[in-house]
Amino acid sequence: MSSLLEVAKKNPFSTPVVADAGTSCEFGSTEYYLKCMVGGAASCGLTHTLVVPLDLVKCRMQVDSAKYPSLGKGMKVTLAEGGAKALARGWAPTLIGYSMQGTCKFGFYEIFKNIYAGMMGEENAYLYRTSLYLIASASAEFFADIALCPMEAVKVRIQTSDYSSTLRDCFPRMKAEEGTGTFFRGLKPLWMRQIPYTMMKFACFEKTVEAIYKYVVPKPRDQCSKSEQLVVTFAAGYIAGVFCAIVSHPADSVVSVINKDPSKGAGQILKEMGPKGVWKGLGARIIMIGTLTALQWFIYDGVKVALRLPRPPPPSMPESLKKKLGITEE
Question: pTM of the full predicted structure?
Answer without folding.
Answer: 0.82
